[in-house]
Amino acid sequence: MNYGNLTLHIHGGIATITLDRPKVLNALSWDLVTELEKAAAQLREDKQVRALVISGNGGNFAAGADIGPMAERMPEEAKRYTFNSAFTAIEELPIPSIAAVSGYALGGGLELALACDFRVCSEDAKLGMPEIRLGIFPGAGGTQRLPKLIGPTRAKMMIYLGDTVNAATALEWGLCDIVVPGDPVPEAMALAGKLAERAPIALRRAKETVNRGFYGDLRSGIAAEEDAWASLFSTEDQKEGMRAFLEKRKPLFRGQ
Fold first, then answer.
1. Which residue has the higher pLDDT, 99 or 254?
2. Among 157, 251, 195, which residue's Cα sits nearest to residue 12?
3. Catalytic residue among 37, 45, 92, 131
4. Is residue 88 part of a domain?
5. Neighbours of 8 (CB within 10 A)
6. Is residue 189 part of a domain?
7. Distance (Å, whole) CA 128 – CA 106
8. 157: domain CATH number?
9. Which of 99, 116, 131, 200 has the most CB atoms in a 10 Å sphere around its CB?
10. What percent of the chain has pLDDT over 90?
11. Alpha helices per DSSP H over the chain
């Protein structure tokens, strides 16, 4: 299968997906996310693949979603264009997945990394949920997965303020698992290689069991998040926030 916004390679039982929109810091367009879901479906059918590494081309993982196409949407349209289906497909792959995070992992980019089993970060990584600055909040699983990973207080700090954290803080909080100098992909590939040597059926069942116990009723939480997120596209603050971003100015939120 040919992809235009990412590359997919499989070698030695390890699959690599590289987000490939470097000119826009691998911002998540609808086309890219659709291809990501198709790639996940392809990997699910390939019984020879034992592990997956996801990274971004050009020194960044993914700097959030494309704001331009989102700015003028209304709630029902916004809800149809969430990334939940693709990110859930990644999370529910029967193989372990590793996000190799360098540079920016913001908004939907961080939510993609959260859908992976592990996160290997470069020392220069910047992770954050800046959506509040646009008059919205994370709408692709971030309000559900982030608190379970780092605790509700730290998650609220990230979501409510929209500030980024560096790799050292992310490691301390449990937001990333390994920090390396330079490119995180070789370390992620080394981890993938170790995982590929483990018993695949036992590993698949272990992943299913851990996720079922840890996440509980995650799907209901994501559905509630999706409804609330989409509803914000009827507010003047959302329109102001995204227009200000596109116009490169500070937004003026009025609570309307």
1. 99
2. 195
3. 131
4. yes
5. 19
6. no
7. 5
8. 3.90.226.10
9. 99
10. 64
11. 30-45, 75-80, 84-91, 108-114, 142-150, 152-161, 167-173, 185-196, 200-215, 218-231, 236-246
The range of the structural domain enclosing residue 141 comes to 1-182+199-256
**Average pLDDT, integer, range 163-170:** 97
What mean pLDDT is reported for the chain? 91
Structural domain contains residue 190:
no
Question: Is there a domain that residue 193 lies in?
Answer: no
Q: Which residue has the tokens 């959302």?
A: 238
Residues 39-53: tens digit of each pLDDT? 999 999 999 999 999
Which of 91, 111, 225, 240 is an active site residue?
111
Q: Tokens 């920016």 identify what position? A: 104
* CA separation for the pair 126, 215 (Å, rounded): 25
Look at residue 182 and tell me whether its pLDDT is greater than 90. yes
Active site residue 91: no
Asked whether 245 and 63 are in contact (CB, 8 A), the reply is no
How many structural domains compose the chain? Answer: 1
Span between the terminal Cα atoms of the chain, in Å = 46
